[in-house]
Amino acid sequence: MNIxxxxxxxxxxxxxxxxxxxxxxxxxxxxxLSLIEEAIQVPILTVLAEITARKPDLVGINVHIWNRNYxxxxxALVRQVLPKIVIVLGGPEVGFTPELAKQECQAADYIIxxxxxxxxxxxxxxxEQGQHPQLSTVPTVVADLSSLPFPYENLPQLVAEHKLVYxxxxxxxxxxxxxxxxxxxxxxxxxxxxxxxxxxQKFMDAKVPLVKFVxxxxxxxxNYYLPILQFLAKADTExxxxxxxxxxxxxxxxxAFLATMPKKRLQFEIGVQTTNTETLRAIGRQDNWLELxxxxxxxxxxxxxxxxxxxxxxxxxxxFVSWQHSFNAVYKxxxxxxxxxxLKVLRGAAISLQQKEHGILHMAQPxxxxxxxxxxxxxxxxxxxxxxxxxxxxxxxxKYQHSLNFLVQEIxxxxxxxxYSAITSWWERHQLYEAGHSVREAGLLLLGFVQEMHPGQxxxxxxxxxxxIFLGQPNWRPEELCWHTxxxxxxxxxxxxxxxxxxxxxxxxxxxxxxxxxxYLPVESFTWTxxxxxxxxxxILADYTNPGCYLELEEF
Length: 556
Ligand code: SF4
Prior knowledge:
Layout: E1 3-9, H1 17-28, E2 33-39, H2 44-53, E3 58-62, H3 68-81, E4 86-90, H4 92-95, H5 98-104, E5 110-112, H6 117-128, H7 155-160, E6 165-167, E7 170-171, E8 189-190, H8 193-205, E9 210-213, H9 222-234, E10 240-245, H10 252-258, E11 266-273, H11 277-282, H12 289-302, E12 306-313, H13 320-331, E13 337-342, H14 355-358, E14 361-362, E15 370-372, H15 378-393, H16 401-411, H17 416-429, H18 439-453, H19 458-472, H20 489-497, H21 499-505, H22 514-520, E16 523-529, E17 533-543, E18 549-552
Parallel strand pairs: 1-2, 1-3, 3-4, 4-5, 6-9, 9-10, 10-11, 11-12, 12-13
Antiparallel strand pairs: 7-8, 14-15, 16-17, 17-18
The structure holds iron/sulfur cluster.
Residues 173, 175-177, 180, 182-183, 216-217 line the site of iron/sulfur cluster.
C-alpha cells in the first residue's frame, strides 16, 4: 500500500512536529510511507497535484484550527480525483469531536482521536492485511514516549529552509483550564532524560536557531526539567530554546540557577490569562498572581531570558474594568512581549459547554474566536481587538520602550490602559486598524498621535522617540526628527583620534576604518537620557554590535 502523510502548516517557516512523529514512528516499525509538508498559502490545486502525482492508496492529513477548511476542501478534492483512496484525518480539530468531523468532511474514512502514532500504524497494518478496523472515538495517548524515535531526519535541510523547529519532551497536562484541550488527557508522560539530552544535542549540532518546546507546562517536575536546563546552560551553542512555563511554580533553587543562564539561550512564555481571581477559579486555573508576578520580576531583572506573557480577553467574569486591571498589572511587569489574545471556544473544550451560562458568542467557524460575553459586549471586544493591533505595532516591537514609558508615566498618570486606550481611539479615528504598518511607520504614528493629542508634550516626546530610534533602528534617521550627527562629525573624529580617552571606554580599541566606526559605533547628542531625564546635552555612543547597548561619553 502506498501511504502518504500530508502536513499542512500555517506558515512556510513552520515544521509539523506531529506529522514528523507519526512518520518516523511508523518507519521505525517497518512501515513504508512518505511525508510532504505544505502551507495553507499554497494553492490547493498545487497540493492536490502533488498528492495525486504520488499515486497514494492512503493519505493522512493533520487538522488544526488554522487549516480545517483547507484540509476539508483538499480531502473532498482528493476523493473526487482518487475515488478509491483511504483518507485518514487526525489532529486536535477533529480528534475530540470525531462524529462531527465525519459529518463535516464526508470524504474522510477514518478519524484518529488523540495521539496518533500507534493508532495510525496499526490502522495501516490492518488495512494492508485487508481488514477494516473501527477506531476508538476516545482520545488515546502514547504511554511510553521512549518508543518514539527522534522526530526529524533532515535537520540540516530544515535549518537551510529557515524552519522553526518544534520539540516535546513530555505530553499531557495535569491542569484543567476550561478553554484548553491539553488538559483532557491528564496523564503526563515524559521521554527519558538521556534521550531528551541526546535529541537536544542534535538540534545544537545542526545549529538550529530556535527550538520551541511544545510541552504544555515545561516546569512541572524539577527533577526532570532542571537537568535539561543545566545541560542547555553548559552547552556551547547559539541555539535558543523556547518553553512555556508556569512561573508561580519556579522554586528558589531554579530561580537562582536561571540567573546564570547564558544570554539568549532561553525564552519563556508564561500564560497569565487574567489576574481576576473569580475568572481564574471559573476557568479552573489555580495561579498565584503574587508568586507569579514576583518570579517574573525576578526573571526580568536578570536580563538574560526573553519573557513573553499572555492575557486572554473574553473569559468568564472578566468585564471591561476587570480586563483593564489584568492589563495594567501585567504591563507593569514590562515583559519583552505581552500577547493580548482572545478566547477561542474550541470544540471539545469544557468551556464550550458553558457558553449559555456566560453568554459567550463566538465565531461558528475556526478560529472560533469570542465575539461577546455576558461581561464584555461586542463593542468592547472590538475595541480590545483594535487595542491589540495598536499594542502589537508599538509595545511588542520592543523598539519604543522609552517613548511609551514616557507616554504612560508622564501623560497618562502611570495607567497603561489609559494610554493605550487613547492611542486606540485615535488609531480607529484615523482608520489605521488592520492596515499593516512597519515598525518605522508605527514610530511616526506615535509621534503623530502625540502631536495631535498632546501638542504641549510633543517636543519632549520627539526627543525620547529619537533616543529609542537611535538605539534600536540603526539604519533609520527619520527627517521628522532633528538629528545632530553631521554637526558632531568633526568632534566625533577628534574623539576617536584621542586614544587616551577612547581606551577609557574601549580598552581593546584598535582603529579599523572610519566607515565601520560611523556604521557600528555612531555618536549622537540628546537632551534626554533614561538616567538623567531632560537637561543639558548628553553624548551617546550606540554600540550596534551589541543591540540596545550604549555608552554616555562624558569626555567628548
Ligand atoms: S492552558 Fe496550559 S496549563 Fe491549562 S490545561 Fe492547557 S496546557 Fe495545561
